[in-house]
Each structure stands twice: as structure tokens, then as C-alpha cells.
């Protein structure tokens, strides 16, 4: 299937078709997701937590993101890929934001970038990157790069006043030129209000069923990442358990000499070569 474009995503919204969005961080996973027909892949800075083992997304660097976006691109050459701008790769200035967004496109051939926030400074960054010719996805609600100010990974927009602020942030991000917005960790009523008022595709993660599409962290929905599981995750498989059992079975068989089996998992040598080999060994004594 041909790679989808923003026109396809806008058409899907017009037709009432949901947009399927998942994160991926490596070649193998991206390949499976493309095969499964996922519409859009996010190489999230959750990479830092899910693949690199940090407790937060803060330590993730541009070089980390570029390397993993390249791997995902190789695995999913025909899927729309969004690169997530890591902490401090766009905050300092519009110029810094354009330069780093440009690296994602130039070095990893992503289709769009995403950045967190809904205030006037972020609106300026979105406008600058968009005017440089790059598609920008906004990200509001539970924004992990603001976790210090939020006070942890907590749902947002749970009071009437905070909910209204999020609706207004979505407007600001859309007006700044974002082609789509990801809304994370908000009550369904807030996801619904933002979606109904938007002129661009609204994607949700933990934002209820009314958004134009859904995102999950792939490692959560297959039961791979187990440090914590957000409330909004549904587990579709238990890959962590399957892999752990496979590793245990391998360990047992190696220890008991049951693996490898000679003749099955081994290289063969012609009979005459073995004979000559033994003679050579003998004559070397
Ligand atoms: N593996 C993984 N999945 C994610 O969804 C995710 C990441 N990592 N890393 C970056 C952010 C952090 N996110 C998180 C992390 C934790 C909760 C969580 O545990 N929430 C609790 C309490 C919510 C509250 O206090 O309001 C929950 O029960 O959902 C939610 C989103 C979403 N993102
Ligand atoms: C949690 C999602 C929205 C994200 O930004 C990421 O995967 O980094
Ligand atoms: Mg992120």
C-alpha cells in the first residue's frame, strides 16, 4: 500500500474513519507494524524509557532520536513516520527548533515532527518549523517534558477551568500551523470537545474514544514494558511473558546439554574431510 499523506488523513477524518497510530523504536517492530497496516508510526522520545531504560524522557538526545528514526524508516518504508523532538531540542529558540526539525527530515526521512506544549512560545516554534516546510504535530495535555511543573505523569484537564485551557491550547496550536494534534491523558469530555472544535485531525492517547485516531505505546499494548502501565492501556498480548519463557527454556536446554542437537543445529563436514582432519591432527603431534 502507498504511504499515506496529510490528504489521506484529512479524508479519513471526513469519512469518519479512525486513524491508527502506534509508537515504534526499531527496525523489526516497525516492519511488523507496517505489515499490520498501521496508518502512522511515532518514534516517541518515550524511547528513553521503553528502549533505553531511563526513568523519564529528559536524557534522550537528538542523536538517539535520529538513529532510531532511521531504523524505523528502514522497517516501514511505506508508512507515515512522525519523529518526536526530544527535550531541549526546540525550547531555546525558533532557529534551534528549525535546525533540529530539519535533521529529522534530512537524516532520517521522517514525514513529520512532533513537539510538546500549547503556549505562545510553542506556537512560535510550530509556525517557524511549518514555514520551513516541515509538517508539525502538536502535543497537549499530559506532556512528559513538563513533568516537573505537572508534578508527575498525571491526567490533565480534570477541572472545568483546566479543560477549557486545553481547548484553547488546541486552537492556538492549530492556528500556529500544526497539521494534527496529539492529545494525551485527559478525560473523554475534553478529548471530545477538542475534536469537535478542530479543523485538523486530533489523535488521542488516554483521551477517550471520540478523537479522530488512537495512539498507544506499542510496548505497553503487547505487555512488553512492565515498569508501569497507564490506565488507558489495553493489553493485546503478553510478549514479555512469551520472551521470558523462551529465554528460560533456552537456559534450561543449554545447561542440560539439550541444545544444540548435533546434526540439527550444526554445520556438517564431509566424511573424507573429517578423516583427513583427524590424520592431520595425528601427524601434528
Ligand atoms: N511505557 C510508557 N507508556 C506511556 O504511555 C508513556 C511512557 N511510557 N512514557 C512517556 C509518557 C508518560 N506517560 C504516562 C506515564 C504514567 C501514567 C500513569 O501511570 N498514570 C496513572 C496515574 C494518573 C494520574 O495520577 O492522574 C494511571 O493510572 O493512569 C500515565 C501516562 C505516557 N507516556
Ligand atoms: C507518549 C507519547 C504521546 C509520546 O510522546 C512518546 O511516545 O514519546
Ligand atoms: Mg514524547
Automatic annotation (TrEMBL):
Binds 1 Mg(2+) ion per subunit. SUPFAM superfamilies: Phosphoenolpyruvate/pyruvate domain. Its cofactor is Mg(2+). Its main location: cytoplasm. Keywords: Cytoplasm, Magnesium, Metal-binding, Methyltransferase, Pantothenate biosynthesis, Transferase. One of its GO terms (cellular component) is cytoplasm. The active site is at 184 (proton acceptor). Pfam families: Pantoate_transf. It is found in: Cytoplasm. Mg(2+) binds at residues 45, 84, 116. It is an enzyme of class 2 (transferase). It catalyses: (6R)-5,10-methylene-5,6,7,8-tetrahydrofolate + 3-methyl-2-oxobutanoate + H2O = 2-dehydropantoate + (6S)-5,6,7,8-tetrahydrofolate. The keyword Cytoplasm applies. Homodecamer; pentamer of dimers. Belongs to the PanB family. HAMAP family: PanB (MF_00156). This is 3-methyl-2-oxobutanoate hydroxymethyltransferase.
Amino acid at each position: 500500500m502507498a504511504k499515506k499523506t496529510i490528504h489521506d488523513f484529512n479524508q479519513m477524518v471526513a469519512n469518519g474513519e479512525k486513524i491508527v497510530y502506534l509508537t515504534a523504536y526499531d527496525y523489526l517492530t516497525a516492519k511488523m507494524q507496517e505489515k499490520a497496516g498501521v496508518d502512522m508510526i511515532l518514534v516517541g522520545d518515550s524511547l528513553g524509557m521503553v528502549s533505553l531504560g531511563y526513568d523519564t524522557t529528559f536524557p534522550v538526545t537528538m542523536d538517539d532520536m535520529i538513529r532510531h528514526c532511521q531504523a524505523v524508516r528502514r522497517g516501514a518504508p511505506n508508512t507515515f513516520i512522525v519523529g518526536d523532538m526530544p527535550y531541549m531540542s526546540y525550547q531555546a529558540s525558533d532557529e534551534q527548533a528549525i535546525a533540529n526539525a530539519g535533521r529529522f527530515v534530512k537524516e532520517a526521512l521522517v514525514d513529520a515532527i512532533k513537539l510538546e506544549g500549547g503556549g505562545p512560545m510553542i506556537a512560535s516554534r510550530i509556525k517557524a518549523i511549518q514555514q520551513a516546510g516541515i509538517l508539525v504535530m502538536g502535543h497537549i495535555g499530559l506532556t512528559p517534558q513538563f513533568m516537573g511543573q505537572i508534578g508527575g505523569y498525571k491526567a490533565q484537564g480534570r477541572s472545568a477551568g483546566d479543560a477549557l485551557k486545553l481547548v484553547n491550547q488546541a486552537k492556538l496550536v492549530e492556528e500556529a500551523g500544526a497539521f494534527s494534534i496529539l492529545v494525551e491523558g485527559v478525560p473523554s469530555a475534553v478529548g471530545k470537545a477538542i475534536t469537535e472544535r478542530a479543523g485538523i485531525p486530533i489523535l488521542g492517547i488516554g483521551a477517550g474514544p471520540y478523537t479522530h485516531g488512537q495512539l498507544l505505546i506499542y510496548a505497553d499494548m503487547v505487555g512488553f514494558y512492565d515498569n508501569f502501565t497507564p490506565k488507558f492501556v489495553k493489553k493485546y498480548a503478553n510478549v514479555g511473558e512469551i520472551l521470558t519463557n523462551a529465554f528460560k527454556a533456552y537456559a534450561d536446554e543449554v545447561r542440560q546439554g539439550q541444545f544444540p542437537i548435533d546434526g540439527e543445529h550444526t554445520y556438517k563436514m564431509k566424511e573424507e574431510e573429517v578423516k583427513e582432519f583427524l590424520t592431520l591432527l595425528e601427524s601434528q603431534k
